[in-house]
Amino acid sequence: MGHFAKIIINFLILYAIIVIAHKPKIHINYTIWVNDNVDISYSRVFEVPYNSTFYEVMEIAANIDTRYIFNSTVDPKYGHFITEIGNYFQNSSMNLYWFIYIMRNKPNVHTKPPKSLLSNYGVDNFTVKNHYNYLFWLRTYNPSEDF
After folding, report:
1. Rounded distance, CA 26 to CA 23, Å?
2. pLDDT tens digit string along 41-91?
3. What CATH number is associated with residue 57?
């Protein structure tokens, strides 16, 4: 690689660092519930760049807290399909899937969120909002109740 190419690459790296460092940050609450009866629940506030998709939030969370490490498959049309978070796996034979809810208030295990708060989009297809709450719940899919 020539000297000029190295200068250009170093400039681009420096520029990217400056842009990322100055990108405004927001705070979101990310909650995990496991099982229909919410046997497991944990929640944490994360500082993330403004205009982050929820998938980007998941990557940030996984790098900060191991409870948020996840796996997914990728569909070319719909994007990432979450199959595991924190060693809790979906199970299609039991109709057990991850559902994401977008909420203004922090979720309460004693008051299950209504289906109106279910995200209409996959994790790649919506950006998070400052001070919102995002609940990922591993629970049974019931076609008569969910959609």
Report:
1. 10
2. 999 999 999 999 999 999 999 999 999 999 999 999 889 999 999 999 999
3. 2.170.130.30
